[in-house]
Specification:
three-stranded antiparallel β-sheet; 36% helix; alpha+beta; 4 helices
Length: 106
C-alpha cells in the first residue's frame, strides 16, 4: 500500500511551508539541497522538518494539506509540537461576526 505524507517545514526566516509527497526523505532532500530555484524554500534554507503525518489515502492527505495550509502560524506550531490543548484553543472562533460569538460568555 502506498503512503502519502503531509509535512511542515520551518525555514531559516521563520516562515512555514506545508507540502505533500509520497516520498518524504526524497522531498525533504529536494528542499534541503535547493533543487528547484522556483520553490518557496529555495531562498529560505536551511530548513527543518517540524511535522509530518502519514496517510494511506491520497484524497485524505490532500484534504489535510489544504486544511492546514489555511491555518495560522501558531496553530501549525501547536500541531507540530503535539500541543493539542493549544490547537483546540486556537481552533475556537474568536470572530465577532461569527454567529456563535457572544461577548457575555467571556
Amino acid at each position: 500500500m502506498k503512503s502519502y505524507y503531509v509535512y511542515i517545514l520551518r525555514c531559516n526566516d521563520g516562515l512555514l511551508y506545508t507540502g505533500i509527497t509520497n516520498n518524504l526523505s526524497r522531498r525533504f532532500e529536494e528542499h534541503r539541497s535547493g533543487l528547484n530555484k522556483n520553490c518557496f524554500t529555495f531562498r529560505r534554507r536551511p530548513i527543518n522538518l517540524i511535522f509530518h503525518q502519514e496517510f494511506n489515502d491520497v484524497i485524505q492527505a490532500i484534504y489535510f494539506e489544504k486544511k492546514i495550509k489555511k491555518w495560522s502560524r501558531k496553530k501549525k506550531h501547536a500541531l507540530a509540537n503535539g500541543d493539542y490543548n493549544m490547537l483546540q484553543i486556537l481552533a475556537e472562533c474568536r470572530n465577532a461576526t461569527h454567529s456563535d460569538f457572544d461577548p457575555s460568555k467571556e
